[in-house]
Amino acid sequence: MSLAQKLKLYRKQLHEQNRGAKESSPNPQQLDQTLDDKRQNQAIRRAAVALDADLRTFEDQYVLVHSERLPLATRIGPYALDDLWQTVASWQTFGAAHPLSAKGLHAEDLLFFDTETTGLGSGSGQMIFLIGLARLTDRFLELKQYFLPGPGHEAAFYDSFLKDCTSLKHLVTFNGKAFDWPRVKTRHQFVRDQVPKLPAFGHFDLLHASRRLWKNRLESVRLQSIESNLLSMGREKDVPGKLAPFLYFQFLKHPEAGLVKGIIEHNREDVLTLVSLYIHLSNKILGKAETDLEENYEIARWFEQIGDHTHAQTIWEALIRKDSAFQLPAKARLAACLKRKGDYQQSLKLFESVIAAGGDESGLVSIEAAKLLEHRFHDYSRAIQYTMSAMTQLGHQRNDEKMYPLKEAAYLKRLNRLKLKRTKKFS
Fold first, then answer.
1. What pairs with residue 76 in β-bridges?
2. Where does the pLDDT of residue 73 fall: very low under 50, low under 70, confident under 90, or very high at 90 and above?
3. What's the DSSP call for residue 176?
4. Which residue numbers delimit the YprB ribonuclease H-like domain (predicted)?
């Protein structure tokens, strides 16, 4: 090979080496991004230490997991944690089905669950950034909280949470049916190819039960309102829920544990309150705790609505023996209960007692009495009297533009039919 050819080959090799070196070295922008990511990861690690949380990894993502084991003697408001054993045991011997019944379950099957989110909206843009859960074991209550350190770590977040819930049988939440779990389902869609499937489970939503019993007593049926007014609990330093999204977004900019420590404590308190509240509600429904007249009335209504007329009747009978604002409404409901059971004589007697005492402001009790008199006793004259009384009461409800015309037409139809029957009877 000539000298010229050797020089030409050398220049070609040199050019290829220079090009390869250029391609392999990062540009300044890439270098800055790498340094930012490194600083962010270091800050997250420091935050994990400050929050007493384990830093779990999944592929190249992180999730912070704080774990606690609380002794069963720990008291949450009026109850100790191990009171849950007796509550679940009491449901096993309770003869009726109920939406809060743990019949067929063990105390260990209940998972008390709460989340914190970046907003209250239902769209896919709202993230869950904290999941708290607790379950009983034979030696302690295990509480875990999963904290999302950034939007790019959701796969690690849900992978860790779902792997810890493989044996989930029953959730216990406060508004979880409408809020918490639907948002879990929404965000899970984005990472479903990377993480375990969502489990199937039962669900006790304590918000619905709390509304039934205490909606007339509390200005707002919020968990903290129930804590302070009904469970004799209070929080000295609590981060308001409305501040949680703002503090979390601040954390995303500057991952400092102090920004979110209060949110994590708030979530922890919420989860523990669910244990106490489930015991409290169950004990009232099971008759294991003292109940006032209004609570008794609402519990009976609940039994009635789910078709458990036996338990409802027992409570109605107790209420009508007490002189209170619930005596006449309880009489009317007991009368309806007896009517379903075929005790028409006693049912009519109770309906007429309510009417005579002035407890029929809506006219509905008079209509029920008229129905019995028409179909069971064929006393059309008295049935007409009660129907006309109901129409008089209806006249006071003319402002109800939607229902008034419908009821008026139905009452007139009944009245005309009764008059026709009376005429035929005496002709």
1. 79
2. very high
3. I
4. 111-281
- Residues 260, 148: Cα–Cα separation, whole Å: 11
- CA 412 vs CA 161, 298, 364: distances in Å: 62, 33, 14
Residue 327 half-sphere exposure toward CB, CA atoms < 13 A:
11
Strand, coil or helix: what is 172?
strand
Q: Which domains does the chain have, with CATH numbers?
A: 37-286 (3.30.420.10), 308-426 (1.25.40.10)
Show the CA angle centred on residue 330, arms to residues 305 and 372, nearest 5°.
Answer: 80
Q: Are strands 61-71 and 140-147 parallel, antiparallel or unpaired?
A: antiparallel
Partnered with residue 61 across adjacent β-strands are: 58
What are the backbone dihedrals phi and psi of residue 338, each rounded to the nearest 5 degrees, phi first? -65, -35
Q: Which of 387, 354, 410 is nearest to 379 (CA)?
A: 387
DSSP 8-state assignment for residue 198: P
Q: 170: which strand partners?
A: 110, 202
Convert 8-40 to b/e letters by CB count within 10 Å (16 or more is b).
Answer: eeeeeeeeeeeeeeeeeeeeeeeeeeeeeeeeb
Question: 197: which DSSP letter?
Answer: P
* 32-40: long-range pairs with CB below 8 Å, 24+: 40/150, 40/255
Q: Which amino acid is present at 36?
A: D
pLDDT of residue 122: 58
**What pTM value is reported for the model?**
0.88
| Residue 16 scores a pLDDT above 60 | no
Burial class of residue 82 in the structure, from the number of CB atoms within 10 Å of its CB (0-12 exposed, 13-18 middle, 19+ buried) = middle
Q: How far apart are CA 317 and CA 121, in angstroms?
A: 45
